């Protein structure tokens, strides 16, 4: 499915689940989401890790509702709702490449180019920032100063480096002819096909049937 339509579909699922009270519908959505992840060959270890992370907030909500609100139905509803959010968030992030998503958002949803390039730059600079943090730690140790992960000095220096990189990136884009707001051509056009629309509409209709009729 087209990344933009997939993104919109996940948002629709999250919004509708937030305003419906169907435990059975939530369970069905969880099963469907897990099957989708397995079909997409997501590693079982990663899938189990995602499910484990959601256990703490889900059980916390369940216990608080049962003990204080005296409502087991509300507790189970919130428990399953948490897992719907987590599983479909994972289904989107683990099966969609960032490059394809931002290209689709720019071409299909007409988001500004500066937003698209900003997102790409931020993700591509993450390894550089991590390396810079390690470099700052090493330099401090050579001076006899140990910087911990909570040390403000560590992040202040990393932010200064990130600002310098962003300025260099902006100058590089301008030198290659990038002009904000000007129409551009695309090396890899992203189109929404009829099949994409059919799959999207089918999933939306199926969602209504699951949440509203069960």
Automatic annotation (TrEMBL):
Domain of life from the UniProt record: Bacteria
Pfam family of the protein (one): CbiQ
Record's subcellular location: Membrane
InterPro entries linked to this entry: ABC/ECF_trnsptr_transmembrane (IPR003339)
Membrane-spanning intervals of the chain: 6-39, 46-68, 74-94, 194-213
GO cellular component: plasma membrane
Membrane topology value: Multi-pass membrane protein
Keyword list, A-Z: Membrane, Transmembrane, Transmembrane helix
Name under which the protein is recorded: Energy-coupling factor transporter transmembrane protein EcfT
């Amino acid at each position: 499915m087209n990344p933009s339509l997939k993104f919109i579909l996940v948002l629709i699922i999250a919004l509708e689940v937030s305003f419906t009270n169907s435990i059975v519908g939530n369970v069905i959505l969880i099963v469907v989401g897990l099957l989708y992840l397995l079909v997409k060959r997501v590693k079982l270890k990663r899938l189990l890790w995602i499910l484990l992370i959601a256990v703490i907030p889900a059980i916390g909500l369940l216990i608080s509702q049962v003990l204080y609100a005296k409502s087991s139905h509300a507790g189970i509803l919130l428990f399953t709702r948490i897992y719907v959010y987590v599983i479909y968030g994972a289904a989107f992030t683990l099966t969609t490449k960032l490059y394809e998503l931002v290209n689709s958002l720019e071409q299909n949803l007409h988001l500004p180019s500066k937003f698209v390039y900003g997102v790409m730059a931020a993700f591509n600079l993450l390894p550089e920032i991590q390396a810079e943090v390690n470099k700052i730690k090493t330099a401090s140790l050579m001076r006899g100063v140990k910087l911990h992960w909570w040390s403000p000095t560590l992040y202040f220096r990393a932010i200064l480096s990130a600002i310098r990189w962003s300025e260099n990136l902006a100058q590089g884009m301008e030198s290659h002819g990038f002009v904000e707001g000007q129409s551009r051509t695309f090396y890899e056009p992203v189109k929404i096909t009829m099949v994409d629309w059919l799959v999207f509409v089918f999933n939306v209709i199926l969602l209504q049937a699951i949440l509203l009729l069960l």
